[in-house]
């Protein structure tokens, strides 16, 4: 980065700090998506500037809507012009966000979720808004918030079918959790 490119007091979009481990997380998601042959519409929450959106697009998911609260991150993602990807700015922690998004997410069968350390946090109305959801890919940077959200998923009838851990920052307590949740066939999504 040149001195001209440095802009003090400007928040930059989130970026994973360990490129090698990030590539492993992307490979995990790519593998998981390849196992799912029934993907029609994918929603990605907390997409940032497209770290996992690129994997979703490369996996051939026909229609993806990616949401993030940072306009700068969404503008970066849109510049990538990924096939089949729409990107929108939404504060995913606002109280009535799921009601606001219901029309665009209700027919999605696949969800990729990569929240900040606080986790999903706002699950009121979440499952009811995802009426057609079959598979959730959850990538978490905080095992505590992941455990809380996983318990919420379990109470709604979702079961983990795969859980992987990645030591993103060796010699620190930071661990990424990657999990796949499925709803047993025949049960409603909410």
Summarize this structure briefly.
The protein has helices spanning 19-35, 53-58, 71-79, 97-105, 126-129, 143-155, and strands at 41-45, 63-68, 85-89, 110-113, 135-140, 159-166, 176-182. With 190 residues, it is an alpha/beta fold. Strand 1, helix 2 and strand 2 (63-68) form a beta-alpha-beta unit.
3D structure, described in words:
By secondary structure, the chain is of the alpha/beta class. It has a single domain (17-136, 156-174), classed as Vaccinia Virus protein VP39 (Rossmann fold), CATH 3.40.50.150. The protein has six helices and seven strands, in the order αβαβαβαβαβαββ. It has helices at 19-35, 53-58, 71-79, 97-105, 126-129, 143-155, and strands at residues 41-45, 63-68, 85-89, 110-113, 135-140, 159-166, 176-182. Strands 3-2-1-4-5-7-6 form a seven-stranded mixed sheet, with helices on both faces. β4, α5 (126-129) and β5 (135-140) form a beta-alpha-beta unit. The termini are far apart. The model has no long low-confidence stretch (mean pLDDT 89).
